[in-house]
Amino acid sequence: MTNVQQILQTAIAASHTGGAILRRYFEEGVIMRDKSQDGGKSYDLVSDADEQSEAAIATLIRDAYPTHELLGEESLQGGDVDSDHLWIIDPLDGTNNFAHRIEHFAVSIGYYENGQAAAGAIYNPVHDDLFTAVRGEGAFRNGKQVHVSDADTLGRSMIGCGFYYDRGAMMKATLAAIEDCFSHHIHGIRRFGTASLDLCMVGCGKLEGFFEYNLSPWDFAAGSLFVTEAGGKITDARGGELPIGSSSVVATNGHLHNALTEITRRHHP
Ligand code: IPD
Ligand code: CA
Ligand code: CA
């Protein structure tokens, strides 16, 4: 087994460990707390489930790779993104779905070697649905290789999108881009609420494209590799390279990349 394959096995084990914690809290119920700073409006949520999932994932990775760096959404935000061996973790992606008892959420774990995504695992613990990718070795759903779709016009496409927690200029830009997509006769727009799984849907050929004007690295670290290993393309909303940091994101099957980034560039907030 190559080193990266071993790393993928650790990512899978960690996603199962975090996922088991999420599943237990999802079944038993948990109190959601507000972490948004927007005048007390409660839509950016966190809970013991996110925090315990992240802690358990971190312990498992640190036991296996004590010298590696960890970056994660809850207590791991200080992780050094310039590290040669970097794990990027969203212990619960789709918190709002989780809070509303919608079974569409995931653990997302990406591993970056020398600044490049090298392995990733995304796991929906309710559906026991596992998405994995290793650089140069393809993208897999529950062990079966997947590929992006071959639709080559917006008129044959289903487009996913996401709204950042901002309810101002960014939301207006997103709505304008959606309207623009419809004017190109797309089949439809979907907003599923879990960016990592949205990216998996692009890789699995269910969505032809996906865009969001602001995502954090833990939202797309694993999913970006999944998209490219499935034959797709991922950039920021202007068509530039994705940083290991907060960024706009556009992912497509490749054929539609110019067409979709033309739209997202036009409305960029
Ligand atoms: C969110 C989800 C959502 C996306 C938001 C993310 P969280 O992550 O991925 O789909 O639209 O921008 O912040 O907060 O549920 O981990
Ligand atoms: Ca997230
Ligand atoms: Ca999260």
From TrEMBL:
Family matches, as InterPro entries: IMPase (IPR033942), Inositol_monoP_metal-BS (IPR020583), Inositol_monophosphatase-like (IPR000760)
Give EC number(s), comma-separated. 3.1.3.25
Give the matching CDD domains.
IMPase
What the entry lists under SUPFAM superfamilies is as follows: Carbohydrate phosphatase (SSF56655)
- Which keywords annotate this record? Hydrolase, Magnesium, Metal-binding
* Reaction catalysed by this enzyme: a myo-inositol phosphate + H2O = myo-inositol + phosphate
Query: Which cofactor is recorded for it?
Result: Mg(2+)
Family named by the database record: Belongs to the inositol monophosphatase superfamily.
Protein name per Swiss-Prot or TrEMBL: Inositol-1-monophosphatase
Q: Which organism is it from?
A: Aporhodopirellula aestuarii
The upper taxonomy is: Bacteria, Pseudomonadati, Planctomycetota, Planctomycetia, Pirellulales
